[in-house]
Amino acid sequence: MTLRIAVLAGDGIGREVVEEALKVLDAVSVAGGPAYRLTHFPHGADHYLRTGELIGEDALRELGEHDAVFFGAIGDPRVPPRTLERGVLFAITVRYEMFLSVRPYRLHHPRLTPLDPSVARSLDLVVVREAAEDVFALPGGSIKTDRPDEVSVGTVVFTRRTVEAVVRYGFELATRRAGARRVTVVDQSNAAGVFDIWPRVLEEVAPEFPDVDAWHEAPDAFAMQLVRDPARYDVVVTSWMLGGVFADLAAALVGGLGLSGSARLNPGGLSLFEPTHGSAPKYAGKNVASPLGAIHAMAMLLDANGRPDAAALVEDAIALVLREARIPTVDARSGVPTDRQGDLVVEAIREKSARRAPR
What we know:
The protein has helices at 14-30, 45-51, 57-63, 83-95, 117-120, 160-176, 197-205, 219-228, 240-254, 292-304, 308-323, 338-356; strands at residues 2-10, 35-41, 68-73, 100-106, 124-130, 134-143, 151-157, 182-186, 213-217, 235-238, 261-265, 272-275. The strands form two sheets. It has a ten-stranded mixed β-sheet, sandwiched between helices. A two-stranded antiparallel sheet has the order 6-7. It is of the alpha/beta class. The chain has two domains: 1-103 and 257-359, Isopropylmalate Dehydrogenase (3-Layer(aba) Sandwich), CATH 3.40.718; 114-254, Isopropylmalate Dehydrogenase.
């Protein structure tokens, strides 16, 4: 079967890191991975400034003819904040009901973490967050702007249907992962009644998964424990806003935002895969950004589309280049150019596939 992938490189460093991820996809395909067909979409800041279009109905419909969307990054200082994010990325995720955000984090080498290695060595967790409601359902805004009596108002929305689906996905994921089989729901129900639905749904769903340990924690307690004892956690389930904070904290503990991929999932439908970092316009065109997050996102895409073997090959290659310090860090100061990092991962894939080949 040919894997049909819609590619939106987007803005800033997105174009550079996507190029390296596609280079890796080609190497995996040659090594026995899936055949694939790419469709490139131009949507982002340049397209918007040239045409005035964010993303139109025809393009949205065409995305649905693919097996997955591979996304680079969105955001440009020439365009007002939130214009591109809402007009392109959120337009896609809303249209295709991508209500789950999944971000895995694993420490590949002690030099990458700011924690004591003895504390961080077992860090291997996934942050699952709701990605359709929270503050996005009714975004709100400000009145009397720039006046002493200015007021900003927003609404937080959680529906049982979405919260239950997100919590249930967290349990299902925990049963598929090797190791601890734990689910931690992080919510603010200790202080804000709108979060009461989260621990109630947890209590209702948990008995269906007797082999999974489950509990809920307040955000401040979770943040403290995450840096003191990260091995305590396996699958962390939370809301969009809280999850954004904790996902970035977890990223810092394993080396930085440049390392990890992210998925916006509609199980059984169209899903989108991207690096966790933003467009970083100050690094665009300088060939210094780490493409490992985009490459990891490609591994997640392969896994979600029925090729866990190909995904494992990519993930093992990433682990190898980090473990052996072929890429010493995952930020713009690594000293290894973006395109060279892609080459190093490709070389590692070839090394590993050669070892696996029958003699």
